[in-house]
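pasting for the record
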Amino acid sequence: MNYLRLFVGVSAWIQLDANQSSGPLALYEGSIESVLEDDLGPLAAPARLYGRVWTSGPQAVIRYYAAQPLDGGAQVPICAVARLGIGQLRKLPDSKPGMAVLGAPSAGVYIVDEFR
């Protein structure tokens, strides 16, 4: 992460799901592909972020483990999470088991030092 100059707290806006661009947004437990809306350190928008979604609690948890620049560069490992501030990624009441319905299609992505 230091090699890429991606330090803890570096952040950018993302489109949570590359296949859905408007809300409300339905995310399913499992793999996710997100799109950078802003540059994240040396990763230029619209690079792709790859990660995993968990939906079992009151809010969705999204962790990213890889980024793919779209300039032909190699995929790089990252350690990042999606956040929206107070309430974070709180699920809407019509969420069913194994999925999370969110009110917004975008969130912030933040570099972290480890997943907790």
